[in-house]
Amino acid sequence: MTCYMRLFSNTHILRRGLHSSVSFKGHWNKDWMPNQYPESEEERKRSAKNYNLHESEYTPYKDDHGYGDYPKLPYLGVATRDPFYPYDNPEHRRNFNETLHAEIDMLGEDRYDAGMPSRFSKGYMLWAFVSVFGFLFGSCYLSILYLPSYQPVTAKQYPLDGKTHYTFETRK
Amino acid sequence: MGNLLLRTWEQSTDPEYQPKYDAPPSFDPHLGFQGKREERVMIATEQELRAAKIPKEDWDYCAHHRLDLARCRADVFPFVWKCRDEAATVSHCLKDDWIIRMKEYERERRLLQRKKIQDQAAAA
């Protein structure tokens, strides 16, 4: 996945020929890996430039995250982006060379719209949930309490338990 | 349907004078009959039922038909569909048993209603 991100984010693969025999960076998946976590200010600047970000926008993931120097972008789904902007890649609302979120495979429009304002408030959702399921469970509960849920028959008659049972015919 | 609605209504309005769930009849079995009622007859014996390994919950007044069915199945196995007459006999017997229990329930219900009227008359 990281390789995929680098494919769209690195500038050095811009002018490659499709059948070029010249070896270039980005040819192999190991070349798409992020670099080491930036320790010095100089490395931070270089990483920010590598990902087309301003230095003030650039924050890498924590060093133990395994993302190297990959930038930590706002956790927003693609669905939150402007739908009317003329993107280079409109079906993904993505511009060419744009740095993607590290979890873009989850944030696509067909997945999770993180950060999207919801249509209903949390209180309304809770109210709707409680009223629908409260009606269902409440009616079940009331029916158990008040509806006789058994057949209108007396206990089954077993002859060997010592009692006498009778038919509805009278003895002659 | 109507029976269920009526029982629902009566159990909520008049719970004390309704028959109890899965209980034997509580009144004198001969009350209100011209003479004595016939006793139900158990034909199969416990020994036979044990020998045929009939489960204990089936030791009812249809047990002799169950024995016939078990015997038939043992004779013709695996062609058990030949015993469908015996199986139908068991079913009919169980249906009649059920009808007797329904009649007992209704008798119990009516006698409780009669008792209610008597109690009200005694209280007034």
TrEMBL record, chain A:
Keywords: Membrane, Transmembrane, Transmembrane helix. The chain crosses the membrane at residues 124-147. It comes from Trichogramma kaykai. This is NADH dehydrogenase [ubiquinone] 1 beta subcomplex subunit 8, mitochondrial.
UniProtKB/TrEMBL annotation, chain B:
It is a peripheral membrane protein. Keywords: Coiled coil, Disulfide bond, Electron transport, Membrane, Mitochondrion, Mitochondrion inner membrane, Respiratory chain, Transport. GO terms for cellular component: mitochondrial inner membrane; mitochondrial intermembrane space. Residues 95-122 form a coiled coil. It is found in: Mitochondrion inner membrane; Mitochondrion intermembrane space. InterPro entries: NDUB7. Accessory subunit of the mitochondrial membrane respiratory chain NADH dehydrogenase (Complex I), that is believed not to be involved in catalysis. Complex I functions in the transfer of electrons from NADH to the respiratory chain. The immediate electron acceptor for the enzyme is believed to be ubiquinone. Belongs to the complex I NDUFB7 subunit family. This is NADH dehydrogenase [ubiquinone] 1 beta subcomplex subunit 7.
